[in-house]
Amino acid sequence: SYVLTQPPSVSVAPGKTASSTCGGDNIGSKTVHWYQQKPGQAPVLVIYNDNVRPSGIPERFSGSNSGSTATLTINRVEAGDEADYYCQVWDSRSDLWVFGGGTKLTVL
Amino acid sequence: EVQLVESGGALVHPGGSLRLSCAASGFAVRTNRMGWVRQAPGKGLHWVSIIYSGGSAYYGESMRGRFTVSRDDSKNTLHLQMESLRADDTAVYYCATVNDREGFFDHWGLGTLVTVSP
């Protein structure tokens, strides 16, 4: 089965840029989606189709995907961005949906 | 406005059964791809099941043969029937809408807690 690998944690100072990676075999050939989950809350879609923001998601959030790594980038990080972030892909050939293990973003 | 409200979570003994429900409003479940995602305490998200608008259903490996997803179109509700429950099925179970073309989960419920314990 397909595996997505995310670092367990990332730390960043307020106002700086945070990057969260998602590794997978030839992930650049797949479409990657990203979710934000704050403690005690349901996940929220923040990026879909590699780099598209749903309405209501700040422009500070962006995504990219190439080769073996997809990346979620958050510019001008705020305290309210502190959360767990998960990447996800859909393997349409085998009808499997896969999540990465998640990265905890800590705002210092 | 799309709303999803899960119910049915409970404490159940190992080997027991449980049926979760997800009441939808703001759209018709019969015309949408719907799914279940679970999260064990302190752990990450894990895909459980998807049902297509045409009725085809798919399951994560550890759920196959034990879980069954279904819809009640008259009540606009999604169900997840869980059998032979194990301790590692303990989790918050989320219901979500699933984008047909790209497979992302765009609207989520608040979840319902299932605890499997002696």
What's the arrangement of secondary structure elements?
The complex is a heterodimer of chains A (108) and B (118).
Chain A: E1 9-12, E2 18-23, E3 32-37, E4 44-47, E5 61-66, E6 69-74, E7 83-91, E8 96-99, E9 103-107
Parallel strand pairs in A: 1-9
Antiparallel strand pairs in A: 2-6, 3-4, 3-7, 5-6, 7-8, 7-9
Chain B: E1 3-7, E2 11-12, E3 18-25, E4 33-39, E5 45-51, E6 57-59, E7 67-72, E8 77-82, E9 91-98, E10 105-108, E11 112-116
Provide a descriptive summary of the structure in words.
The complex is a heterodimer of chains A (108) and B (118). Helices cover 0% and strands 46% of the residues of chain A. With 108 residues, chain A is mainly beta. The termini of chain A are far apart. Helix content of chain B is 0%, strand content 52%. Chain B is built from no helices and 11 strands. Chain B has strands spanning 3-7, 11-12, 18-25, 33-39, 45-51, 57-59, 67-72, 77-82, 91-98, 105-108, 112-116. In chain B, strands 2, 4, 5, 6, 9, 10 and 11 form a 7-stranded mixed β-sheet that branches. In chain B, strands 1-3-8-7 form a 4-stranded antiparallel β-sheet, with no helix packed on it. The mean pLDDT of chain B is 96. Classes of the chains: A mainly beta (108), B mainly beta (118). The A-B interface holds A 1, 31, 33, 35, 37, 42-45, 48-49, 54, 84, 86, 88-90, 92, 95-102 and B 35, 37, 44-47, 50, 58, 60-61, 94, 99, 102-106, 108-111.
Portion of residues within helices of chain A = under 10%
Tertiary shape of chain B: globular
Number of strand elements of chain A = 9
Order of helices and strands of chain A: EEEEEEEEE
Low-confidence sequence ranges of chain B:
none
End-to-end CA span of chain A: 36 Å
C-alpha-based Rg of chain B, rounded: 13 Å
What value does the average pLDDT of chain A take? 96
Show unreliable segments of chain A: none
Strand-pairing-aware structural class of chain A: mainly beta
Which chain pair has the greatest contact? A-B, 26 and 21 residues
